[in-house]
Amino acid sequence: MYKVAFDKDAEKEFLRLEKSAQELVSKKLLDLRGGKHKGKYRKRVGDYRIIYLRENELVLITIIRVAHRREAY
Hints:
- It is built from 2 helices and 4 strands; from the N terminus they run βααβββ.
- It is α+β, with helices and mostly antiparallel strands.
C-alpha cells in the first residue's frame, strides 16, 4: 500500500502542465509504488521529470517537483 502526496510547489507545477502532460504524469505515478528503499528518486515522463521522496514502510511518496527535463535540476 502506498499514498502519493504533492508538495505545495509541485502541485502548482503539475496543475500548470497541459492536460496531456498531466495525464502522462498521472499514469506514471502508478509506477512509483515499486521499490523498497527510502530516499530521493526521479522518474522520466516524456519531456518531464517527477522528483519524489519515498518516506516510510507504508510508502508515502511525496512529489517534490514536476518540471520539464531542462528545468528539473
